[in-house]
Amino acid sequence: MRLPAAHDDRPARLEMVPLMDCIFLLLVFFVYATLSMIVHRGIKVQLPSARAVAADKHPYVAVAITHDNRVFVDDQPVTIDRIVPAVVARMGQRRDKAVYVRGDERSGFGTAFRVLEQLRAAGIDKVSFECKEAQP
Which CATH number fits domain 49-133: 3.40.50.920, 3.30.420.270, 3.40.630.30, 3.40.50.11690? Predict the structure, then answer.
């Protein structure tokens, strides 16, 4: 006499719901990891806030002014007199790159004005100041 087995002789099945859950979690992980890798070049400064803020994703050269009025082009310290050659070297052949000035809100207005004056005198007109969005 043959006794029934605890399992049937059916072929094994691959359940799709747990597999879709795993794929969805991987997708969420990679999307989050990609969004958190936004490149911020330059020195970390405390940006002033403004109500009208627009994000720009085009290539740029970062000029940072720290709270003690030191000037950096990307990560390299420069003097205000040497800022134009440093910015032009970072631009390379692409003269259409914008220059973003990241000024610490505790820095002096005079330093930012002198940086802007040097850049404009060299014919670099695409200069913008970075800020963070104001909280309502």
Answer: 3.30.420.270
